[in-house]
Amino acid sequence: MKLQVKLALYNTLTKLAIILFTGLLILLSIEKISYDHVELRLEENERETLKNLSSKEINSKLSDQKPYTDYNILKEEFIIIRPVKFQPTETQGAKFTTETRTSDQVTQTYRILTHQFNFNNHTYLLEIGVAITSIEELKSIIKRFTLLTLVIALALTLVSDLVFTKFLLAPFYKIIDRKLIKVNDPMNFDYEKIKTTTQDFELLDDSISTLMKKISNLFSLEKQFIANVSHELLTPISIISSRLENILLQEELSEASENKMHASLKTLNRLKSIINSLLLISKVENNQYDKADMVMIAGVIMEIEEELEDRLEERHLTFNNNIKYIYSLMGNRPLMHTLLFNLINNAIKYNKPKGSITVADELKEDVYILEITDTGAGMDQQQIENAFNRFEKFETEEKESYGLGLAIVKSITTFHNIRVKIDSVKDKGTSVYLIFNRD
Prior knowledge:
54% helix
């Protein structure tokens, strides 16, 4: 999960917890709030009623010592004033009760305010009631409002957190993308600083740039060392080879000595081949080749098939050239020849007797894919991961394998901006895919 999503999720969950806690308090307090609201309303009605005791309708009833009763049309509210036993001292304060009353065969539960008062030397009991249904409606309104508020608050919180974290972490993702993901060669690293006001991201940017500078220097020293050592070794190897060949020309040389000389020459030739391979990798990585040739892939494949014809017959292998498209790219033709030669040569080297090698291609909108498949020994996942490492050798009957073929392939594909992918199943075969961009 991305850091941006984690931060937004964390902020949303914490705020949601606060909102839910507040909402729960409101929901638990709804009944008290509703009853308090109704009681305030009843007290207001009480004051208005006491003010209007002198009105003609009420006064006539009270003068005759008869109860005054008033229900509204829906029986949701009522006012009752009835005479009671005279009390010289007026009852202080109002009382609230919840009772069930029946009027005109309609039974409802009411919240009732009861207040005893004196008027014109008589004592009266005032009852003002409001149906509980109105309280329930109020509670329902508050619940819906609370729920709507929670949903809106949560949505706004989530959106605002996502927008803010995206803005906050934008420099971080730029640093990761530009200075880690897209870095194929430390020698061509982009040291331009990413604009940010966050000190932590500035520190990360500077740290990566410093680290890449150290790695670049080490790469440069390594390439220079390999190139220098390889170049310097070729001269003494050539001299030793010449001397051994001259010794072999002497007629008095014994058969045992001649065999030792041939073995030494073979070892020197092997060493020379390794050095040449290392020099090739070094030159490719140092961009010492140009890319001015128009290379036709199908033509190179046909040349390699002819070159390796003897080896294919020797191993009784079937070569299937299923290329359907004429695809060309600007590059270095000798290097592309070496690239494809190494891949097809590996398909021969690690194949099974009487097996097959198939070269096919596929043309898509943005890429051209070349596939080289064999029916050989295959590789496990660990071998696939290490396949492009230098001097990584697999089991083979070939004695002239140095473990540099795929390292050369990797260098040449990187030089030409070609992606290379390996799919393989142990004891079933291997497929190598070269993916060319159609720019």
